[in-house]
Design a protein that fits this description.
With about 625 residues, this protein is α/β, with parallel strands linked by helices. The chain contains 17 helices and 26 strands. The strands form 7 sheets. Strands 4-3-2-1-14-15 form a 6-stranded mixed sheet, with helices on one face. Strands 7-8-10-11-13-12 form a 6-stranded mixed sheet, with helices on one face. It is globular and about 80 Å long. The structure holds the ligand Nc1ccn([C@@H]2O[C@H](COP(=O)(O)O)[C@@H](O)[C@H]2O)c(=O)n1 and zinc ion (2 copies).
Length: about 625
């Protein structure tokens, strides 16, 4: 990045400093109490989107993948000591969201080997693994080989270039026995995604459940104590994208007495759904903000050798439904992704050591990779924090007001610079808040990671063009993903809008010889699910969340004398070009996709315009860039 202002090595330094300073940890919010351990326990990640370095600007989610490595090993050991089973599950979307995964193509080539340091028992594929052909093949050739039988893609195939035939990227199902003898049949089912590149095939769940292999697996020749249905697939059955309802109903009809446990993702929320007396589903958020915990007891099995209610720890107590007589009981918890949480749940006494060498090595790997990728190179200094949903659409601190300005200022074809233009992007292309302070190469991926290019239809009559944005916001995206209603909500962000150091916690923690007690409840997730409002491991106060429309438009070069132009250029992303054509025709136009061409070279993408804007408009205040003191990086670094 030749034109960047300069490196911010302090970011790397900060992580090491943070690791060493107990008082820095004291500023994080602590869990409310120990986890309930059952006969079978799960740790669940989903939609990590490359955030393996953790949230450098939010201590509340400040743990990195190395910390998670240490935590998961403690938990596996604890499960062994308690004589119960613990399974680790991931439900996909590994890229598109942070520099670590996206700065070196194909996305994931650097981050996947870091991700692979967790001993997952089951994994499944996300839609972000399938948009781009090279990334899909990276998963076919590399990721699926690393994980073997554990990588489940029950309804996702890819053309094997060696044979020219469609083959499953991973396995269709996994039948396995846990350490303590539970016999499990697992599937991994992607929602009915239609935006994949043409080398892969997503089989609709309704078709998959009719396939003979699936029917045979459900009626397996060996005994099944539990079905595990994991999927990059919202667990709430009323979510229009979810196919878990269908999967549940199908399996339940064939096997009326076997418990079904689901783990989902894709909608980026914390959620827990009860399907029936012996079936529930957990979804565990996004971006390494949340680690999902689920425990259950009461699974009937001839071969189980562990304990039903492990001693010395709380046990799950809640039936799926009030009327359940199955004997099955559950607990679920959404853990904030920070070291305080991990240490709290992993270590019991003040002389326990949290970090494993393997965890520290992964942290070092992340630091090295960040350096090699130059992720802390600086584009400019953001004068304010712009959030995705904590402000009304186009309010001054709403990120789409910044996007609107940047689109108008930066997205310009020099040969048409004087022609009035609307420049439209989908609000879903913005993935995270943009935080006051240093705006780095890494932040550019965090905020706008996709590589969607700018196309246009020239000289559209103004009478049509002026209505495109409103019509789009009443339309649905053409990536075949359905959005509800006219003003759907952008994936909400649970970031503290002030990005202050998150301080305060409600309990007392002894760890590393330091006792910490605070009483202030800090902003964060406040989840309501089918078990109520007590799922968040660390109680928080609510962060405001406003609905945002699906599209936002910038404009430029309009007459300044109050007159309206006869025609304008309508500029938009290739990602939804066909939707724009349909909308224009709905307004009375007669366009086809042949009228669409590139407004700028395809190498100018949604990754490009914000860095350029920052370089042009946010460099003057770089010498005094406010870091620390409630904004930017913690600890004043
Ligand atoms: N090229 C792309 C691909 C995706 N998007 C946006 O991301 C959404 C899907 O993300 P999930 O993490 O929920 O799977 C999709 O609906 C688009 O909003 C994009 O803008 N460009
Ligand atoms: Zn996702
Ligand atoms: Zn997804």
């Amino acid at each position: 990045c030749d034109s960047c202002y300069g490196p911010v090595d302090e970011v790397i330094h900060e992580r090491l400093v943070r690791r060493m300073q107990p008082e820095a940890q004291a500023a994080t919010t602590s869990p409310k109490g120990p986890l309930e351990w059952g006969q079978l326990n799960f740790l669940h990640t989903t939609d990590t989107h490359g955030w393996l370095e953790g949230h450098l600007k939010e201590q509340n989610y400040g743990a990195d993948w190395g910390d998670f490595v240490s935590f998961s090993r403690h938990m596996v050991q604890k499960a062994g000591n308690l004589a119960v089973d613990l399974l680790l599950i991931d439900t996909g979307d590994l890229h598109d969201g942070a520099g670590l995964s996206d700065a070196a193509p194909p996305n994931g080539v650097v981050s996947n080997p870091i991700f692979d340091n967790i001993n997952y028992d089951l994994l499944t594929i996300g839609n972000h693994e399938l948009y781009v052909t090279e990334i899909a093949y990276e998963h076919f050739y590399n990721f699926s080989r690393v994980w073997g039988d554990k990588y489940l893609t029950s309804n996702v195939q890819i053309i094997n270039p060696a044979t020219g035939n469609f083959e499953y990227i991973g396995k269709q199902y996994r039948y396995f026995t846990t350490d303590h003898g539970l016999r499990i049949m697992a599937f991994g089912v992607l929602y009915n995604f239609g935006g994949n590149s043409n080398v892969s095939k997503v089989i609709k769940a309704a078709d998959m459940v009719k396939q003979q292999w699936f029917i045979d697996a459900v009626n397996y020749t060996e005994p099944i104590d539990l079905f595990l249905v994991i999927g990059h697939n919202p667990i709430r059955r009323t979510d229009s994208s979810s196919t878990f309802g269908l999967l549940h109903d199908t399996i339940r009809a064939m096997r009326p007495t076997v418990p079904i446990q689901a783990f989902g993702g894709h909608s980026h929320i914390r959620d827990f759904q009860v399907y029936d007396d012996m079936s529930t589903g957990l979804e565990s958020g996004r971006y390494c903000e949340t680690l999902g915990w689920l425990s259950m007891s009461g699974i009937q099995s001839d071969t189980y050798t562990g304990l039903m209610n492990p001693r010395g720890v709380p046990n799950p107590t809640r039936k799926a439904t009030n009327t359940s007589t199955t004997g099955l009981v559950y607990s679920r918890r959404y853990l904030d992704w920070n070291r305080l949480t991990f240490e709290y749940h992993a270590t019991n006494s003040q002389d326990s050591t949290f970090d494993y060498h393997s965890g520290l090595r992964v942290t070092t790997d992340i630091t090295d990779a960040r350096k090699a990728l130059n992720l802390s190179a600086l584009y400019g200094c953001a004068p304010a924090t712009y959030c995705q949903s904590c402000q009304p659409f186009l309010a001054s601190s709403n990120i789409f007001s910044l996007v609107q300005t940047a689109l108008g200022a930066i997205v310009v074809n020099a040969s048409r610079a004087t022609i009035p233009r609307y420049v439209i992007v989908n609000t879903g292309s913005i993935r995270f808040n943009l935080v006051k302070g240093p705006f780095t190469y890494d932040d550019s991926f965090i905020v706008s990671p996709f590589t969607d290019a700018f196309q246009y239809i020239p000289n559209v009559p103004y009478a049509l063009a002026q209505n495109v944005i409103n019509s789009l916001n009443g339309a649905t995206l053409n990536d075949k993903r359905e959005f509800p209603g006219v003003m759907p909500q952008v994936k909400y962000s649970c970031i503290d809008p002030t990005i202050s150091l998150i301080s305060g916690y409600t309990g007392e923690l002894k760890s590393h010889g330091v006792t910490r007690r605070q009483t202030i409840v800090t902003p964060g997730y406040t989840t309501t699910d089918d078990f109520g409002t007590d799922g968040d491991d660390t109680p928080h106060s609510k962060i405001p969340s406003y609905s945002q429309p699906n599209y936002v438009a910038g404009n430029a070069s309009f007459p300044t004398d109050g007159t309206t132009p006869a025609t304008v250029d309508v500029v938009f992303l290739d990602y939804f070009a066909s939707t724009v054509v349909s909308v224009l025709n709905g307004l009375g136009g007669t366009y086809t996709t042949a009228d669409v061409s590139y407004y700028l070279p395809p190498s100018f993408t949604t990754q490009t315009y914000l860095p350029l804007y920052a370089q042009q408009y946010w460099q003057a205040n770089v010498p005094n860039c406010p870091v620390g003191q409630g904004v930017g990086y913690p600890n004043g670094k």
